[in-house]
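Researcher: Here's a chain I'd like modeled. Treat it as a single chain, no partners, no ligands.
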Amino acid sequence: MFKTRFAILMMAWSLLLAGMAVAQDAGQFLILNAQYGNERNHVDVTNRLKDLARRDVRFRVSHDSMVVDPAEGQAKMLRVFARGPNGQERFFDFPDGSVFDGGQFRAWGRGDWGDERWNGGWNGRNGNAAGDYVILTAQYGDEYRHVDVTNQLKQMARQDRVFRLDYRTFGVDPAEGHAKVLRIFARGPDGQERMFEYVDNSLVDGALFRGWGGGEWGAGGWSGNWNGGGPVAGGRGDAGQFLILSAQYGSERRHVDVTNRLKELARADVQVRLDYRTFGVDPDEGRSKSLRIYARGPHGHERMFEYRDGSIIDGTMFKGWSRGEWGGANDRWSGRWEGEEREEREHDRQ
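Model: Modeled as a single isolated chain. Structure tokens:
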């Protein structure tokens, strides 16, 4: 009887271990390549990552664990390029000091992954992850009292591509008791300066900016103007990179389509300050609301831009803004409040 019970116990234990091994290797993403360093100096560490994968699911990223230091004295990260279940490539950033968890990658423990023919750069093979705007500076506060937070923003960028802004983000309050915003001033593909505004509690999405995670930006060249230095005369306000598909106002549970009303506002001005009277509708009374503009970027992917009440909507980043030639019947929006790209990123993190 004892031998029978022991045999059953050992069999159950074996099945449990096998199940754990399968679970560890049952991730959604197949690794193609791994690079360690920063945008300027990085090396291929795919084989080193395979060695680590065969030993453990988790490890702490550092130049010691990678056994190489391609950029001594500089901030570095492990960047893993992988193919998702939909066939699209994604990259995952793990800064020095962070814990790498291989559980999200397919066949992690076996190490039978890696594309030897992979020929992508630091920003991926298809370049979709490289934003179109180069950051010049970041300022936090209001028009009368604001401080330079470029270096603090770099630290945030190295930790995550998306973060929620609040008064604690930068550890400084230049205008106590007053509403404040983060303004990122960047140079677009056309060489013109653009201003991106984020009010407290809004989401800052680094996907728009080139070299975001590497932090190799903010070297100057800003006009010094709180309201931005990019001219809009002569139709420059219609030269944006994003084509609007839809505009929704409200909250996640209750929101309404305001695309046509936004067109009317766009024809009147390049910049619009948003408040509860802007659209003449309150779809979720007593609750915080925002305007979400869904647009198609130059690479064909959908992007979501969020504006809280009190923030400024800058039409210069949108194609055909003042003409209102967008949001038509043929402009296909995913229909999701969170947006197509954001939902994919959230799925990537799970």
